[in-house]
Amino acid sequence: MIKLAPSILAADFAILGQQIKETDEAGAPYIHLDVMDGAFVPSISFGMPVISSVRKVTDQVLDVHLMINEPERYIEEFKECGADIITFHLEAAADPHKLLTRIRSMGIKAGISIKPETSVEAVLPYLEAADMILVMCVNPGFGGQQFISQSLERVRQIRNYLDSKGLWKDIEVDGGLYHDNVKTVLEAGANVIVAGTAVFNGDISRNINLFQIIFDEYEDIKGYKEYKEEKIEENKEEYKEENNDKKQNNTKQNK
């Protein structure tokens, strides 16, 4: 299932509760919250008090993305604030595997994220322990950046690796995503879409509905393709069975 995660970094904080309610009523299942410390990334955003306040106004999944150094220091606090998913950066954690296990032991989902300059190979050893992998499609710390096209191949590599291991995990993408390019990340294998400006700039309900139309159309096409592939495989098997039966009959007749 494809899920939209509106990022409140692009919202109007003077009417934040109202805008979050609009995203909920329009059908967005997640709310994405970027926590920045001014050290791991240049910007400073918000922390526990804002997340606690958001939790009071919505039942949506709170998808908390920690762009901070030493994330292991604050995991319990963010869980108590109401986080349903906590994602930290591979580059910031002392022991990523241990931290993933710790987050999941609290009864919430654990995600791991990589910056654009971090190799995909670096995160592969931790995928089995994670519920979600967040691929940053811009340099973290600022909104409104242009999508980095190389991100598509990175998403594709991760999805292919997961498929090869028989693992299903959410792949989230964040940065530079709009109605006109979101289909490319879906085709690459992403299924959780973070969008800030594309949701909160203008009519929130209309923006979310447009995303949902794109998601539905993609899933319909994908479902048809999978159905077609299954039928082709079934026909191949039937053809093999028919040929085997013919060969056996010919062998008996020759005898």
Radius of gyration: 22 Å
SSE succession: EHEHEHEHEHEHEHEHH
Number of strands: 8
Separate helix tally: 9
Structural class: alpha/beta
Largest sheet: 8 strands, parallel
CATH superfamily: Aldolase class I
Name of the CATH first level: Alpha Beta
| Biggest β-sheet: strands ordered side by side in the sheet | 1-8-7-6-5-4-3-2
Q: Helix share of residues?
A: 40-55%
Beta-strand content estimate: 15-25%
CATH overall fold name:
TIM Barrel
> What is the architecture at the second tier of CATH?
Alpha-Beta Barrel
CA-CA gap between termini: 57 Å
How would the blueprint of this fold be written?
Blueprint: E1 3-6, H1 16-25, E2 30-36, H2 48-57, E3 61-67, H3 75-81, E4 85-89, H4 96-105, E5 109-114, H5 120-123, E6 132-136, H6 151-164, E7 170-174, H7 182-188, E8 192-195, H8 197-200, H9 204-254
Parallel strand pairs: 1-8, 2-3, 3-4, 4-5, 5-6, 6-7, 7-8
Helix pairs in contact: 2-3, 6-7, 7-9
